[in-house]
Amino acid sequence: MARSTITQWHMFKAVVDFGGFNQAAERIHKSPSSVHNAVQKLEQQLGVDLFKMQGRKLVLTASGAHLLRRINYLLHEVERMEHVASNMQVGIESSLRIAVDEAFPKEPLYQALSNVSEEFPLIRVEVLETILSGADELLEQGKADVSLSPFTLSENLSEDICTVKFVLVAGAGHHLSKAKLPLTLEDLKAHRQIVLRDSALNKQTNYGWLGADQRWTVSHIASSIELIRRGLGYAWLPQHAVAPFLEDGSLKALNLSRGAVRSTNFYLNFTDGELLGPVTRSFLGQIRYLTLN
Amino acid sequence: MARSTITQWHMFKAVVDFGGFNQAAERIHKSPSSVHNAVQKLEQQLGVDLFKMQGRKLVLTASGAHLLRRINYLLHEVERMEHVASNMQVGIESSLRIAVDEAFPKEPLYQALSNVSEEFPLIRVEVLETILSGADELLEQGKADVSLSPFTLSENLSEDICTVKFVLVAGAGHHLSKAKLPLTLEDLKAHRQIVLRDSALNKQTNYGWLGADQRWTVSHIASSIELIRRGLGYAWLPQHAVAPFLEDGSLKALNLSRGAVRSTNFYLNFTDGELLGPVTRSFLGQIRYLTLN
DNA sequence: TTATTCATTCTATTTTTTAGAATGAAACAT
DNA sequence: ATGTTTCATTCTAAAAAATAGAATGAATAA
Question: Is residue A204's pLDDT more than 60?
């Protein structure tokens, strides 16, 4: 079966990285003979000449160069495995609860969660989808570790995380979509607006900046899109949520005379940083990084 | 850095595979204490409990189960690396020369070559594209190790490899494409046929089953398609080569009264099997397998 | 030339791995 | 119940492997 050892790989790599047996030996705090022995044994176990001498200079053979690539990869994988193992022992958090506003873009969130559970494979992830102040409510009630919401918190730590563009949309067959001229607020007031209900139990703010005479209130972005695609009204919705429908033509972005696009800042909220476990810290790092651009 | 060893992984895996320390010890021809020691050391080096006892039954912990997956993967990768290494030493062929008829489907060929060079990473691959007897000529002249051609060989070994369908095609704007009724051979004779020139220097067979009065002869399928798309004639061409153009409508399959589709068998030809090196053997295995369906 | 910097080998020492015997606990058979 | 078997587990001594240190010789640099 497997004849080579990880230590041999390390030494082989070291010889290449530091340009010689003696240099490698010094850098990895081993004797030259140890390094030489290990590499020599690796060579005979693999049945491959890894190095050849050109004068006094050590040069990788073609085989050696190729095996080095594979071995580097293996070493990297081993390191990952052991790192994961080191984060698996009892004592660390076993769950990560995230309250996230529905208007927050899902891609970076899911990517971040995927990366975190790569690092902490035994973690249980809970994603609590909320609207408006619902995310922060859950955080304050201790039902979530982190919230991604459009509001900052007074009690806890908040930081800017990203900006979400809201566009005014209506169904392709809607009267507003057929208007030639830019729309005014008055035009909008004459039609039904679909509004998102705040999911917090305490407060009652609603998404929707216009005081339309008729309004329907729904609990989910998906429901809002459903209604609008059926031509039952218009709404402000996150661009990323309606992009595919704008693409296939079932929704139209309305041409407002002033401010057809609005932006909302989203914030990353969490309780005291000192008390955070490694899982939450890792998640924070990931989501910060992934929402950078 | 890396603290665990491959031997430890093997023993860990063995304990799981064979359901206990003692059984594992017996199966891998080690003493129970060796196995136990190795796994115990692995546990403390990773800082993870791999097993727990339920009565006298050994059960993987959740961490153990996850690490086993990663370790299995690692063991598999190590094996691959060592297998590749074992095929890399001097003495084995360093090149693989394949003469292949242009009408032969490229996908399985390229896939087979990709798999072979995965196994023998230092190999130099030469693909010699030929028409008709050209492939076998190269094989007989010793300029190729394997040929994929529409002919069998008398001197060397041949085996069926796959069947290629030829369809009669013309450009979308061509007279023949516009015919309502099925075409007859007489209809075809009235138009220009594009024929493929045999790439062998000795022989002079040409692809094209019909004795058209006018004929143009070209050296490559790509040229033939070019001409036909421009409406300059018709030709018998491999279905897989013209499929994309039939799809986009720039070529039309002609509706012949009898035999609008013809099939040609392709053969895998090579010299004496005893003398084949491991690289050629591997390629033969791959191409056989990939053309099975 | 001389000195230096290497790879490489040899030998002794230290460390690690292994086997064998022994112990105790749980499951099974009678 | 009772004895037997099948385990994991530990201990100790032997075997094997890794390591260091000194030494050699070859190639380069001063």
Answer: no
